[in-house]
Automatic annotation (TrEMBL):
Its EC number is 2.4.2.1. PANTHER family: METHYLTHIOADENOSINE/PURINE NUCLEOSIDE PHOSPHORYLASE, PURINE NUCLEOSIDE PHOSPHORYLASE-RELATED. Belongs to the PNP/MTAP phosphorylase family. GO terms for cellular component: cytoplasm. Pfam families: PNP_UDP_1 (PF01048). Keywords: Glycosyltransferase, Phosphoprotein, Transferase. Homotrimer. Residues 26-271 form the Nucleoside phosphorylase domain. The keyword Glycosyltransferase applies. This is Purine nucleoside phosphorylase. GO terms for molecular function: purine-nucleoside phosphorylase activity. Pathway: Purine metabolism; purine nucleoside salvage. PROSITE patterns: PNP_MTAP_2. It comes from Chitinophaga dinghuensis.
């Protein structure tokens, strides 16, 4: 066993001491989206600082705990707070929880994030299913020797976001009168919000929304053989020419306002697993 697989085992063994259930799904909650965790029943909370080899989130809006319990009567493990490359973590640290959730038994990963909108048809508070992404982050989570027990050297990224789950989410949204977009997410390093020229550039190359997370976690999830469904809450619109000063507080506020709709879609998708 390698150092990484040893660390994955140590973390998953520790978590398993608190819960003997095998989770079907993992959930990663983005900035301002931690209230979704309140829908988890019979919840067991484990602070990240207590889990062997887990980083500790340093970002406002990320509470920093792992939650085990039931969502829509299905066993899940949820991250209330994620890790980002801009915090100073390595990409292996950023994506370590995905490896641990896989070791715990999940087969599907649900990811949420707060993102800046670049599609002129979007408004603040809209939801966007991520159907594809563009990776502009400066480091890759699979760089270095490949560990074949974790996944293949060259994983296929032609369809990182599961089409069946996207279709089901569209049906759920329609049945509940929720307006839903789909689009391409651009992953960048951060922590600065983008300039107007950067927003324009990323829209020209095919992006509909931009954020500082998600892409590394998706890459490792695909490497691990997991199905992925991801959704962005559009918390600001950067493509417009008028004055658009963005603050983290406004991002959190917009995410919180849209959270009930996102929670409903995630809950119903998990119910169908």
């Amino acid at each position: 066993m390698s150092e990484l697989t040893d660390q994955i085992k140590a973390a998953s063994d520790y978590i398993s001491k608190f819960w003997d259930e095998k989770p079907l799904a993992g959930v990663i909650l983005g900035s301002g989206l931690g209230d979704l965790a309140e829908d988890i029943e019979d919840a067991i909370e484990i602070p990240y600082k207590d889990i062997p080899h887990f980083p500790v989130s340093t970002v406002e809006g990320h509470s920093g705990k792992l939650i085990l319990g039931y969502m829509s009567d299905k066993p899940v493990v949820a991250m209330a707070g994620r890790f980002h490359f801009y915090e100073g973590f390595s990409m292996k640290q950023v994506t370590f929880p995905v490896r641990v959730m896989k070791a715990l038994g999940i087969h599907t990963l649900f990811i949420s994030n707060a993102a800046g909108g670049m599609n002129p048809d979007f408004s603040v508070g809209d939801l966007m299913i991520i159907r594809d992404h563009i990776n502009l982050q400066p480091e890759h989570p699979l760089r270095g020797p490949n560990e074949s027990e974790l996944g293949p050297r060259f994983p296929d990224m032609s369809e990182p976001y599961n089409k069946e789950l996207i279709y089901r989410a569209m049906e759920i949204a329609a049945m509940n009168q929720i307006d839903l977009h789909s689009g391409v997410y651009v992953g960048v390093q951060g922590p600065t919000f983008e300039t107007r020229a950067e927003y324009k550039y990323m829209h020209i190359i095919g992006g509909d929304a931009v954020g500082m997370s998600t892409v590394p976690e998706v890459i490792v999830a695909i490497h691990s053989g997991l199905r992925v469904f991801a959704m962005s809450v559009i918390t600001d619109i950067g493509i417009r020419e008028e004055e658009n000063v963005i603050t983290h507080e406004e991002v959190l506020e917009a995410a919180k306002a849209a959270e009930p709709k996102l929670t409903l879609i995630f809950s119903e998708l998990i119910r169908q697993l």
